[in-house]
């Protein structure tokens, strides 16, 4: 007979220091403050003002038209977070972290910061506990509609454009790695499913002159994709089609689904994947690019991103087992998995 007391040995929680535990929770709680510090730095273009060198808080405040003492206090707080470096005499300079808040430069996260800390996200997070109770986003309660319809409303055009820019900047962190990792041998036609401005498929076309590509997205997105193709001189090998990936997708040798599946629940994802499976050319593949949740209990940004999906959409981040179940239910099998940068992974699928 097994001694159940033996089975518990080594699993007891080690004694903790109450003061240290409280300090750790205070630090976690300050996350909302940190987020708004980032927002203020982005709104006031602190990183842009410091791009050419250190400035005093007073000099920067004069350029921006902000309150000098409050600007100094903001910059002091930012330096404690490693976003700025303090040079003495009220002078501050950019750090590597701080440079990510510059606008219009490769690797910029400024638009992402503004989108994540802006009205649509911040008001939706106020309903997060109810989202957990209900197992569904409460965005409609916060904004009067779901997030995608909210961005489609004319009065929210500026916020929608900011969000689109944020997604484009985020895409840039992973597109290069994904393009370098995926093989296009035997591929002639590529469809970027929900591809927005087509950055992913256009980057593939630039690396392989044999390819022709297409973006499938909602009507308001396809014009920007056509414009981007024109800028890159790829219009002759590219087309953008307004459509609904829940209805059908064009035939292709390779489907790109970059940060698409995390927006939707399993049932909706299965519809998208089945539509791709039904339309794929013989021997074709799909490339899914998403965060992948790792070992439970280990530090993992993907689990925090998953909470954002619960708050803002009815989608989710998934672990590999959850992805595999989803793929199997929709006629695909995961054949390869590889990191593509920015905490994202490419998962190549073959039809079964």
Summarize the model shown.
This protein has 352 residues and is of the alpha/beta class.
Describe the overall structure.
Helix 15 (219-231) links the parallel strand 5 (212-217) and strand 6 (238-242). The model is unreliable at 1-11 (pLDDT under 50). The protein is globular, with a radius of gyration of 23 Å. Strands 4, 5, 6, 7, 8, 9, 10 and 11 form an 8-stranded mixed beta sheet that branches. It is α/β, with parallel strands linked by helices. Helix content is 49%, strand content 19%. The N and C termini lie far apart (47 Å). It has helices at residues 4-7, 18-29, 31-43, 46-49, 57-64, 68-80, 96-99, 110-116, 119-125, 128-134, 139-143, 147-152, 157-181, 199-207, 219-231, 266-279, 301-312, 320-328; strands at 55-56, 84-88, 91-94, 189-193, 212-217, 238-242, 252-258, 280-293, 318-319, 332-341, 344-351. It folds into 2 domains: 20-101, Arc Repressor Mutant, subunit A (Orthogonal Bundle), CATH 1.10.10; 168-294 and 311-351, Rossmann fold. Helix 3 (31-43) packs across helix 6 (68-80), helix 3 packs across helix 8 and helix 5 (57-64) packs across helix 6 (68-80).
């Amino acid at each position: 007979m097994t001694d159940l007391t033996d089975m518990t040995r080594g699993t007891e929680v080690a004694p903790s220091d109450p003061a240290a535990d409280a300090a750790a929770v205070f630090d976690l709680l300050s996350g909302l403050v940190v987020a708004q510090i980032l927002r203020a730095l982005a709104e006031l273009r602190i990183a842009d003002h410091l791009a050419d060198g250190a400035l005093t808080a007073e000099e920067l405040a004069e350029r921006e038209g902000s309150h000098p003492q409050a600007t100094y206090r903001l910059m002091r707080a930012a330096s404690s977070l490693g976003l700025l470096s303090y040079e003495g005499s009220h002078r501050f300079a950019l750090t590597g972290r701080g440079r990510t808040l510059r606008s219009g430069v490769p690797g910029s996260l400024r638009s992402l910061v503004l989108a994540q800390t802006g009205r649509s996200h911040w008001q939706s997070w106020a309903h997060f506990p109810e989202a957990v109770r209900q197992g569904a986003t409460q965005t409609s309660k916060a904004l009067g509609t779901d997030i995608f319809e909210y961005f489609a409303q004319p009065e929210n055009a500026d916020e929608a454009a900011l969000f689109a820019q944020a997604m484009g900047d985020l895409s840039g962190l992973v597109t290069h790695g994904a393009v370098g990792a995926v093989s296009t041998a035997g591929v002639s036609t590529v469809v970027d499913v929900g591809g927005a401005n087509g950055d992913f498929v256009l980057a593939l076309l630039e690396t392989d002159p044999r390819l022709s590509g297409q973006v499938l997205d909602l009507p308001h997105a396809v014009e920007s994709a056509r414009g981007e193709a024109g800028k890159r001189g790829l219009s002759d090998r590219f087309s953008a089609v307004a459509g609904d990936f829940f209805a059908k997708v064009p035939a292709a040798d390779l489907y790109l689904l970059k940060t698409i599946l995390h927006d939707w629940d399993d049932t909706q994802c299965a519809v998208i994947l089945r539509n791709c499976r039904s339309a794929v050319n013989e021997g074709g593949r799909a490339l899914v690019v998403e965060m992948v949740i790792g070992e439970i209990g280990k530090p993992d940004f993907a689990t925090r991103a998953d909470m954002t999906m619960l708050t803002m959409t009815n989608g989710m981040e998934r672990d590999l087992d959850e992805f595999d179940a989803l793929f199997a239910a929709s006629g695909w099998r995961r054949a390869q998995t590889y990191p593509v940068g920015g905490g994202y992974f490419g998962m190549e699928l073959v039809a079964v």
